[in-house]
Amino acid sequence: MLDLLRGAGPAGLGRAELATRTGLTPQAVSKITARLGADGLIAEAGRAASTGGKPRTLLRLVPQARHAAGVHVDRDELRAVRVDLAGRVVGECRGPLDFGAGPEAVVEAVVRAVARVADPVGLPLLGVGVVAPGPLDHRAGTMGRVTGFPSWKGFPLRGVLQGRLGLPVLLDKDTNAGAAAAAGAWLRATWPDAEGDGDAGLVADAAGGAGGVADAYGYAGGGPRTCVYLHVGTGLGAGLWLGGGVYRGARSAAGEFGHQVLLMDGPPCRCGARGCVEVLCLGAVARGDLPEAARILGEAAANLVALLDVDRVLLGGRVVEAAPDVFVAGVGAVLAARALDPARPVVALAGAGVAEGAAELALGPVFGRAE
């Protein structure tokens, strides 16, 4: 029910609509909405236009009633955000990080960052989403052997942070959070900006209105159909949004996109293989040849599209953000050249950061999504 009200935006829904969409009886809906109202999670949104009888009372989510935090632990930087129930950022901090300093130093940095973004008036956090470079075990909450950082293997990051923060903590790969952030972008465009400065409206206008955001990303019916999120930063990875949710694989290992081999006997990659898309793409970035980096990324993306038949390819990460037009055009050109079907995937910017996606994952249980 909360998820339906979130998707409806400030306009809200009536109890009869909630009953129809959930399959619950009107009596059950009345009891549940009364409890949610008493908890401050929903409120009246006015009355619907009369159709001859008594105007219906509409209900809406109260986004500011609860908050969650999201933390992006990168190899050289940490960014944390606090979001409301609509996924709007209401607090943020960013700073340098040395991932190679080891787990204990990173844990201290995460704890400090969560404290910095926490609500100063004491509104409690529902939970914290923490995302880091993979591989890692999402279910167990432990880190894997991150490429270039073997000391992290087996570290129980989720359990340690839960003990330090006293809050539920979800651990996932940064690329999965990127996919979740992209999938939630339509919701943030539906709700007015949390600070009242109209940013959300600008996001909607850029894609042709709130409906335009849905059209641009394929969000008809309350979410994207299928998409891949490609992250280009200090490394390369992919987040997969398949079947209405993040696809992690049987061992949380899905999305190791950067280590597919494109050039046999190519330059050595830090993973131990040769000619991986990561070493080729980031090598082009280091040389300042961004069009070539975009072409390499496009070739790897075309392999993924051919394998999974997705309809959206969304790009993010600091390298993409520094030259968005180059990467959108470059990847799009390769996909067009290699397309086997005229209905090729749309290529677009993700429109949201990884830390926002981490917070979105932390909000999942509130809206009935088991993460």
Descriptive key words:
371 residues; alpha/beta; five-stranded mixed β-sheet; globular
Structural summary, described in words:
This protein is of the alpha/beta class. It has helices at 2-8, 15-22, 26-38, 103-117, 157-165, 174-183, 185-190, 199-206, 210-217, 277-286, 290-308, 318-322, 324-338, 354-363, and strands at residues 13-14, 42-47, 57-61, 67-73, 77-84, 89-96, 125-132, 136-137, 142-143, 169-173, 227-232, 236-242, 245-247, 312-316, 346-349. The strands form 4 sheets. The chain has a 5-stranded mixed β-sheet. A 5-stranded mixed β-sheet has the order 13-12-11-14-15, sandwiched between helices. Strands 1-3-2 form a 3-stranded antiparallel β-sheet. Helix 2 (15-22) crosses helix 3 and helix 8 (199-206) crosses helix 9 (210-217). Residues 195-222 have low confidence and may be disordered.
Q: Segments where pLDDT lies below 50 for 5+ residues?
A: 195-222
Using only C-alpha atoms, the radius of gyration works out to: 21 Å
Widest beta sheet: strand line-up: 6-5-4-7-10
Strand tally, please? 15
Please give the largest β-sheet: 5 strands, mixed
Structural class: alpha/beta
Number of helical elements: 14
- Rounded average pLDDT: 86
- Element-by-element helix/strand order: HEHHEEEEEHEEEHEHHHHEEEHHEHHEH
Give the helix proportion (percent range): 25-40%
User: Termini separation (Å)?
Assistant: 18 Å
> What is the overall silhouette?
globular
Strand content: 15-25%
